[in-house]
């Protein structure tokens, strides 16, 4: 498939996902997305095509208190790790998408690791 016309972000996202599939060894994928206002995380089992768990700053219990900052990303990381434990998942591969590993993305990953997820 040609990458002509793709943005650098889209190319980075594709390159990252391809590398994860090669090294993932069948583990579920912790995929994140951040926008200007929110941050989202979900655990995806690519073999079955299912989302096993999800967390974001849009959830009803935190919608009014959180936003697009590091504290909100830390809270989402903790909640996704708890949801993973409930679903019986302990090891994942981290899919940062096309986002660089700093700021909110790094805060989410660090919180998820501290809460018990292995990646």
TrEMBL record:
CDD domains: Ribosomal_L18_L5e. GO terms for cellular component: ribosome. It comes from the Bacteria. The keyword Ribonucleoprotein applies. Keywords: Ribonucleoprotein, Ribosomal protein, RNA-binding, rRNA-binding. Pfam families: Ribosomal_L18p. InterPro entries: Ribosomal_L18, Ribosomal_uL18_bac-type, Ribosomal_uL18_bac/plant/anim. Gene3D superfamilies: 3.30.420.100. This is one of the proteins that bind and probably mediate the attachment of the 5S RNA into the large ribosomal subunit, where it forms part of the central protuberance. Belongs to the universal ribosomal protein uL18 family. Part of the 50S ribosomal subunit; part of the 5S rRNA/L5/L18/L25 subcomplex. Contacts the 5S and 23S rRNAs. PANTHER family: 39S RIBOSOMAL PROTEIN L18, MITOCHONDRIAL, LARGE RIBOSOMAL SUBUNIT PROTEIN UL18M. This is Large ribosomal subunit protein uL18. It comes from Sphingomonas psychrolutea.
């Amino acid at each position: 498939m040609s990458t002509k016309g793709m943005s650098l972000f889209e190319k980075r996202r594709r390159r990252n996902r391809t590398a994860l599939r090669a090294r993932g060894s069948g583990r579920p994928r912790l995929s994140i997305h951040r926008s200007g206002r929110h941050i989202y995380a979900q655990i995806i089992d690519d073999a079955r095509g299912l989302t096993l768990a999800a967390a974001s700053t849009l959830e009803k219990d935190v919608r009014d208190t959180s936003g697009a900052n590091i504290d909100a990303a830390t809270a989402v990381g903790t909640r996704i790790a708890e949801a993973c434990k409930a679903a019986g998942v302990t090891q994942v591969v981290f899919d940062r998408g096309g986002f660089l590993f700093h700021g909110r993305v790094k805060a989410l990953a660090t919180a998820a690791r501290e809460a018990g997820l292995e990646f």
